[in-house]
Design a protein that fits this description.
The protein has 154 residues and is mostly helical. It folds into 2 domains: 1-18 and 113-154, no CATH class; 28-112, no CATH class. Helix content is 58%, strand content 7%. It has helices spanning 5-12, 32-40, 44-50, 62-71, 75-91, 101-110, 117-134, 143-153, and strands at 52-54, 57-61, 98-100. It has a 3-stranded antiparallel sheet with strand order 1-2-3. β1 and β2 (57-61) form a beta hairpin. α1 (5-12) packs across α7 (117-134), α2 (32-40) crosses α6 (101-110) and α4 (62-71) packs antiparallel against α5. It starts with a helix and ends with a helix.
Length: 154
């Protein structure tokens, strides 16, 4: 028994807008650096100096985003940086203490009114499947959301 797209949509109070396009890729794929520049409002040099490699994934450390949130002069960019941090650290926590590249891909889609619900559900299934297959491991996804779903069903 696992959550459905509709249940996650209800739990997050997120309207079903373009739910079928969560995994579609644009023809002109913007690089990780360009996406971070757009989201954070910072220069290419600032972004390049902070990108790290964690295993196979490119990431930006949470500490860099935190410092930016506290010091950025543009309030809208502060909110965007904070939201990116929440997505990276709580909903898709793949690299501890870092926000990885795939989160910026999803975050970039939010401006196009694409709902993140199918991606969150897919991460839940993937993580639960890995834990079940190995009979151990750590659940890497939004545990708080899954807990809210459990409470709503039991």
């Amino acid at each position: 028994m696992v959550p459905t797209v509709e249940e996650y949509t209800a739990l997050l109070r997120c309207p079903r807008i373009q739910a079928d396009k969560a995994y579609s890729r644009a023809a002109n794929v913007i690089t990780f650096v360009k996406k971070l520049m757009t989201i954070t409002g910072m220069s290419e040099q600032w972004v390049m100096a902070r990108i790290k490699q964690k295993g196979e994934n490119k990431c930006i450390p949470w500490k860099s985003l935190r410092d930016l949130i506290l010091a950025h002069p543009d309030t809208r960019k502060k909110v965007d940086d904070f939201a990116l941090s929440i997505y990276g650290l709580i909903i898709f926590p793949k690299a501890l203490g870092h926000v990885y590249k795939a989160v910026t891909d999803l975050f970039d889609q939010l401006d196009k009114r694409v709902t993140p619900i199918p991606a969150i559900l897919a991460e839940t299934f993937r993580s639960l499947s890995v834990c079940r297959r190995t009979s151990e491991g750590r659940f890497i996804c939004c545990a708080q959301l899954l807990l809210a779903w459990f409470y709503s069903h039991f």
